[in-house]
Amino acid sequence: MMQILLVAAGGAVGSVCRYLVGLGALRLLGSSFPWGTLTVNVVGCFGIGVLAELIVARFGASADLRLLLITGFLGGFTTFSAFALDAVSLFERGAAFSSVVYLASSIVVSIAATVAGMLLMRSVL
């Protein structure tokens, strides 16, 4: 039961953070492109790289801490289901080029951010 509560608590905080990032992106950049989802995916991938290296590889942290931060918080924060819906929505609105740019940039930049997070932690620890 404790593990479920850890995932739920982390997920709740992560979801609120995702919502706030989405609002901020909408206000700053407008609604013509899913900037909020892209930002959350890239930041979330960077964060999972940092946490995977820091928690798991370097400090052998408890399963509970991994559940709270990686499964819970980042699971609530990252939005690949929203990513898929945004890509389809752009395409259906007739913005096929934007849809392809969004798909490609999300995948490439998110993977690069994951590697960057891991490399950052490896260089400072």
UniProtKB/TrEMBL annotation:
GO terms for cellular component: plasma membrane. It is found in: Cell membrane. Na(+) is not transported, but it plays an essential structural role and its presence is essential for fluoride channel function. The chain crosses the membrane at residues 33-55, 67-88, 100-121. It is a multi-pass membrane protein. It catalyses: fluoride(in) = fluoride(out). GO terms for molecular function: fluoride channel activity; metal ion binding. Na(+) binds at G75, T78. Keywords: Cell inner membrane, Cell membrane, Ion channel, Ion transport, Membrane, Metal-binding, Sodium, Transmembrane, Transmembrane helix, Transport. One of its GO terms (biological process) is cellular detoxification of fluoride. NCBIfam families: crcB (TIGR00494), PRK14195.1 (NF010791). Fluoride-specific ion channel. Important for reducing fluoride concentration in the cell, thus reducing its toxicity. Belongs to the fluoride channel Fluc/FEX (TC 1.A.43) family. This is Fluoride-specific ion channel FluC. The gene is crcB.
